[in-house]
Write a structure and sequence with these properties.
This protein has 2 helices and 4 strands. With 86 residues, the chain is an alpha+beta fold.
Length: 86
């Protein structure tokens, strides 16, 4: 069985600071080919949720079975990432 693609998009930002990794709203990443370009702190949060989506699970608290929204743990600038099974 082929694993589905996972798309990661920065959809919002909370806080006045700038992302130390340079991420901006609208940035999009392919998990399989570009995950090395993502902030390691964000990947630490996103990876378990990506794993759930990739293997057919449903994300807790999400109505859409193919996506979810999660925050970066950096309190100075909280990037909001949407992950999608495509």
């Amino acid at each position: 069985m082929k694993k589905p693609k996972i798309k990661i998009t920065v959809v919002d930002k909370i806080g006045k600071g700038h992302c130390h990794r340079g991420h901006k709203i609208g940035d999009t990443f392919d998990f399989d080919t570009e995950r090395g370009n993502l902030c390691p702190m964000a990947m630490h949060v996103l990876f378990p949720m990506i794993d759930i989506l990739r293997y057919g699970g449903l994300l807790p608290g999400e109505e859409d079975e193919k996506s979810g929204v999660f925050c970066c743990p950096d309190v100075k600038v909280i990037n909001v990432f949407k992950i999608e099974r495509v």
